Each structure stands twice: as C-alpha cells, then as structure tokens.
Model the fold of this input.
Amino acid sequence: MARDAVSEIREKLDIVDIIGEKVVLKKAGRNMKGLCPFHQEKTPSFVVFPETQGFHCFGCGKGGDLFTFYMEREGVDFREALKELAERAGVSLDELPRQQKQADPREASFYDLHEVAASYFATVLNSSAAGEKGRRYLQERGISQEMIEEFRLGLAPDGWDYLLKQLSARGADPEAATDAGLLQRRDAGGYYDRFRDRIIFPILNSSGQVVGFGGRAFGDEQPKYLNSPQSPIFDKSSLLYGLTHARDAIREENRVVIVEGYMDVIAAHQHGFRNVVGAMGTALTETQVDLVKRLTKRVVLALDADAAGRMASVRAIESLQVGLDHVPDIVADPRTVFRIAQRLDAEVHIVELAAGDDPDSLIRSDPDSWDRQVESARPYMDFVIDHVLDSIDRNDLTARRRAIDQLGPFLQRIGDAVERSHYVQRLSRELDIPFPVVQSRIAQARTRTVSISLDPKSDEAAKGYPRTEDHLLALFLKYLPVVVDLSPQAPDTLLTDARNRELMGALRSTQIPPEWQPSVILEEVDSSLRDHGESILAGLPPLPPPTPGDVREELLQTVVKLQREQYEVFAGHLRAELATAQAEQDDETFSELRRYLEQLPELHQQLYPRRSTYFRDMRERQSKGS
Done:
C-alpha cells in the first residue's frame, strides 16, 4: 500500500464533487450548503468547506472528511471506501500483482453460502407473508414476475438473524459467512444479518455465480443501497450488474449501454433493451470495460439526471467526472479516458437525460423516448466541450483562455489528427480566437490530471492535515495500556480523519489486548491503516520515557486542544453562514443558525474556564515578594 495513497486521493478528488453527487449543493459565501443526507430537515444546515475539504451538519452534528462522508453515505468500511475512491482518482494502491496472490481456499464455500442466501431471499419474496411488502413494492415499480425470476430478486426480512438461522441450519460456519459479507459481528459477541428489510439484488460474476448482493431500503433509511463488502469473491469495481443477461444482446447490437442502478437495468431489460448493464453506482473502471471489450467497442453512458448525474455525468475509467452544477467542475485524468478509447478503439457516447429523469423512470414511462435518446447520444468530447463553453462568459478573454487550457489536455490525447483538428477548429470558431493561436496553446497544455473549476482550491487547502488529531491517536497507539480507559474521551465526533476513526475503533476492540506493542497492533489492522499508524507514531517527539501520569495528562491536554480547535472552526463557520444568510435575507436559515450560535457561550465556558482569581493573586504576591 503506497504510504501517500490517501493524500494522493485527497489531492485528486474534491469533496465538493463527491458530496455533490448525493446532495444538491448551493454556494453560500466561500462554502457550499444543502440538506443533510443523514437526517430529515427542511432548512439546509449541512455545509461543505472547500478550503479545508471537510463537511459538517449543524443539525445532527455529523462531520468529517471525504472518506468519512463516503463511508457513511455508501455504507462501506474504510478499506472499501479507499479502494473505490482510489479508482476514481486514478491512484494505485500498490497491491501485490495478481499472479503473486494465492487463491483463498474459502472461495468455494463463499460461492455456496451466497447461493444459499440468494435462494432464501428469493423464497421470502415469492412465497412468504413477509414477502408481501416486497412484492407490492416491485409491483408499484412496474417490475414483472418474469424479471423478478430472471434477475433472482429477493427480500431480506425485517429481523436480525433470519439468514443466520438459515445458514446455521445448513451447518454453515458463521465466521465464514461473516468473511463472505453475509453476516456481521456483534460487539458483545455473536453475529447478525448484514441485509435486513431490503429488496435484494443478487450480483453475478461472468460465470453466472452469485458473488454478492445489493440491498435497497424501502423508505428513507440510509444508506439507500447497501452493497456486499469486498471479499475474496466480490469486487464491485470488477463486475457489471446484468452482464450475464445482456451478453448476447450486446454482441448482436454491437453496443453496450451502461447505466448506474439495479432498477435501471431491470426496467431496460423488461422493455426489450437487453444490451443494458449497470455500474452499480461506482466509477466505471478498466476492469469493467474489459468485461465488454470482446463484445463491442461502442459504449454509451446513460447516467441519472439528478444531482449525482449533474455532478458526475461521466465517470468513465477510474477517475473521469464531468460536473454540471452551476459552478462548472470537471476533475478528470484525460489519459485514462482516452486510454480506453485507444485500447478498445472505442466510440464513447453520452446520453443526457432531462432534469428529473433517470433511465428507470424514463424507460417505464416512455420507452420510445429512451430509444431515441440512446440513438442520438453525443460523442464524449462534444459533451465535455459543450459544458465547458456553456460555463464561461465568452466576452471575457481570460475565461476563453482558461477554457482552452482546461480542454487542452483532453484534445492532446486524441490520436486521430483529423478528429483533433475538428475540435480545435470548433474551439477557434466558438471562442472567436484564430485557429493557429488555439492550436499553439493546446500544444503547450500539459497532459496531466486536470481540475476544471472557476474556483479551484488552493494548494495550502489541499494540504490541510489534522495534526492535533494525529498526535492524539499516536498517544493512544503507543501508550494503550496506560490510557485505554480514556478512549471515551475521543469519540468519533472529535475525529475528522476517517483513518483515525478506524484506528480508534480498532484500539477500542476487545480483539486487541491493551498490552500489545504498537507494532503488533498495526499488524492486526487493515494494511490501509497500517502506514498511517506508522506515520503518526513517527511524528511523536523523541523524549525520555514519560511516567504514566505524564502520558495521561498529555493525552487529556491534547483532547482539550482538539476540542478548542474544532470549536474555533465551528464558531467561525457558523458566523460566516449567519452573515451569508443575513446578506441573502434568508430569514429561515438565519433563525435556524442562531439557535446554534446561542449555544456557543456555554460551550466556550466549558472549553475556556475562568481561572480562579485566588490563585492568580497568590502568584502575583509571590512574584512581588521575590
């Protein structure tokens, strides 16, 4: 695992883009604001801070960094979040080459466990009273019984141990079922079902074996979709939902249409569009493209037109994102998107759906319209250029120059000279800049990861790092036997770095005895956290061995320091939000934020208690006496 993989991901991905895929954000001063995705609210109190690359909800108190949000919103652990975000950022995690990896002897049993689970979920949906809820839901969504059976849809009942009992009755080892992603461990011991009260979508590999599940909540429960965790047989980034059902149609039509969701795929197949597969909400990866490259070289991307679709209409090959929000943001590695085209000699086209549409609803309401939109999908490069040019003031020479610089790396990677010349001429014509000038400036563009933004974050902001928080975790890690009872002093709400939250969770675990040395502890945690743990330990100053009392005092002082730092940040952001609401005459938001402002004096008094005047007077007398 590369030591700086997390830092690389943070540099290449913007938290505004990631959160903007799930939350409709609006500019609020220097920050972005929207409705919190973690609790119900009418007045936006969820704020994203581009400068510090963090988020905070003034309503429910949730906050953290890019990784924290992704883990909370997608219902994945840190390892899975790291892998998926690394794919989007084009960052290598430096895992062992495939040929060096030994086959996991448990794989065969994992396939069997998933087959048992899939059959059980299907039986619950189709043949039980508990399944009535699911049958009614699917009927309301217009899913036919034929599709239910073809895609082996199921239902996980509303309970903690239904699947556990089924697996136990068949003699399955609950530990193996947990490692396979079907169960989860209880903190107090024992196991419980991972999927509960959800419609279940079995996910198949290229051989037609069930390797994982997607579970959709019925109401507003979060996460809306819960996927199986990474396992020896399940890697979401290496699978395409519905491919086993779509393979023949893709080959016959010589085209694959890639959508995001399970329901999108099923609706398409039900209405006769059998060449549709799903990326399951992840960034499209080279591995996924490899699955279809022998079937076709014509790829159509058709993503939702909601906030996620506007913020990431194209998420092709590891890191490609095209933002369509009011502030044009494109974060992409042009090398990756054009590498797919060159490797596959592929035609990549984009379907733009109208606002409020998604493939599922459009196909069900107007199949002919869906067909027309797929047929009229635009070439990827046209799509990118349109949205860059639509975002600028064409009377502003600086903006026109910036547009050329932003598009230059993309155009450089077009191998066909005629095609490249076509787009250069288009830029020349639409920007009213002579062709030779545009061509020369594009030739000077550096082919690298490009951040197209009207307000890019500064280098200093990108390098922001929670040093006090790291120091706190290093103290826990190095002196765990002395401070283990102080772990409640460092709740997750105090830790903004997802890695520190994960490490703290491991240190609290009963599976790690407090007497273990730091090196032994780090051998037990995920490799994605090991490097971070070693790094923060190395940051501790080389002092003589302190006494237990010194260590405890240092830790408690660090907690107070961290609380004060967070208070200052919180108070500053709150005042800024109030000023913005007042300037915009947003009375509702202003009143809502004032409630939190009124809590600041009490919080300030707790963090900055007044010192006794008696002791101060005594010190002054002693000083005068000396």
